[in-house]
Design brief:
The chain has 180 residues and is of the alpha+beta class. It has 5 helices and 7 strands, in the order H-E-H-H-E-E-H-E-E-E-E-H. Helix 3 crosses helix 5.
Length: 180
């Protein structure tokens, strides 16, 4: 089923999933909050994470506005999902992730994060928090995945949540090396 046909079928039925899949992950780093924040705002680091997560193509931009930063990561991923889900999303998945980082106080930083799949009824919204913890930094990712597809939405949400967890684990691996 084409994306257009899927979108029309959803609109015609006026059906939308109101459930979400919650994703909560924590990473402990040996660096300070500001060192981890600097890493997360480094376009080269974010590009390396895209490559480590098997992105077929990617683009990273970092826009500084005073003490706030907007990080935008656009990547195209292979659709490594079961065939029943692939028929909804195709062979590749384009993902646009934005992180709006707020000014910090040296002991903490916070960002609102969104991920969307252009042209598809799927998104994620949440927060990333950096907090000073035992001489290091604890990064907390807390978000909700929502897919508005009747009957298959929960399966697709689970697949997206797994992909987010995989990306967070790769970011952690690369981050530990970046900070050492």
């Amino acid at each position: 089923m084409s994306s257009f046909a899927l979108d029309r079928a959803i609109s015609a039925c006026h059906l939308a999933s109101s459930a979400t899949m919650h994703v909560y992950e924590q990473i402990q780093y040996d660096g300070s909050v500001e060192a981890v924040y600097t890493m997360l705002c480094d376009a080269r680091f974010r590009a390396a994470v895209c490559e480590a997560t098997y992105a077929l193509r990617h683009a990273v931009s970092v826009d500084v506005d005073g003490d706030g930063v907007l990080v935008t990561i656009e990547r195209v991923m292979p659709a490594d999902v079961p065939p029943a889900i692939r028929r909804f999303i195709g062979d590749e998945i384009a993902i646009v992730q934005t992180e709006a980082w707020y000014p910090g106080d040296g002991l903490s930083r916070r960002a609102d994060v969104t991920m969307r799949i252009p042209g598809k009824p799927a998104s994620m919204s949440g927060t990333i928090a950096l907090e000073s913890d035992n001489g290091g930094c604890r990064q907390t990712f807390d978000g909700d995945v929502r897919v508005s597809v009747p009957f298959a939405g929960a399966r697709i949400e689970a697949a997206i949540a797994d992909a987010i967890r995989f990306a967070i684990s790769k970011e952690s691996e690369l981050g530990q090396r970046y900070l050492s």
